[in-house]
Design brief:
The radius of gyration is 34 Å and the shape is rod-shaped. The longest helix has 15 residues, at 111-125. It is mainly alpha-helical and 213 residues long. Helix 2 (33-46) runs parallel beside helix 7 (129-137). The protein contains eleven helices and four strands. The protein is 44% helix and 5% strand. Strands 1-2 form a two-stranded antiparallel ribbon.
Length: 213
Amino acid sequence: MKRGGGLSQTTQWSDSRPAVRIDSQSRSDPDSSDKLYLRNFILNKMVDSKSFSKQFQLFAKFGDRDSDGRTIKLSQSDKWMKQAKVIDGKKITSTDTAICFKKFKLPKLTESEYTTFLEDLGRTKGTDVGEIKSMMVSCGNPGFTSAVNNSKTPGAVERLTDPSKYTGSHKERFDGSGKGKGLAGRRDDVDTSGYVAGYTNKDTYDKEHGTSA
């Protein structure tokens, strides 16, 4: 590539892929393989390799105490991709990642093998591998969730935890303020005073008539 002079007719890359020729036909065809490869190559180079390696090690250890961070499992990869919104359930699904991952016939992949896996996934789904890696680098540490996800308790849960809406025996376990009555709310004590249930004038006769036992 010439500084400030654009692309030459034939450009040699640092990897093992043969030279990519940019001619008038490929320029006019947005779906040409050469143009797609060129775009992937540029985006891939824009991702800081050290940052990606650091993320790879973090997620390769996530949920596995015995891992040294050098290899990653499919389950860890899926967690990483879901957190990075690469797996969105529409364009890319966990089924897609499983198909590409299992082509290696290995339970875990090294970072080099994982990069090949991402390239295959991007090629299969028509997505730039550089864009995928960029999203995976910027998604934060394992388990990170944005403030947007810290929402209030959903309405359905609020209704289920509101004592004022309870009925039957469950209602008897809470007082008017919603505070639990403890054992008294779970025990059905038998009234042996001789008064009928619901009678509200208990022990008022003696006071009204000035008599005592």
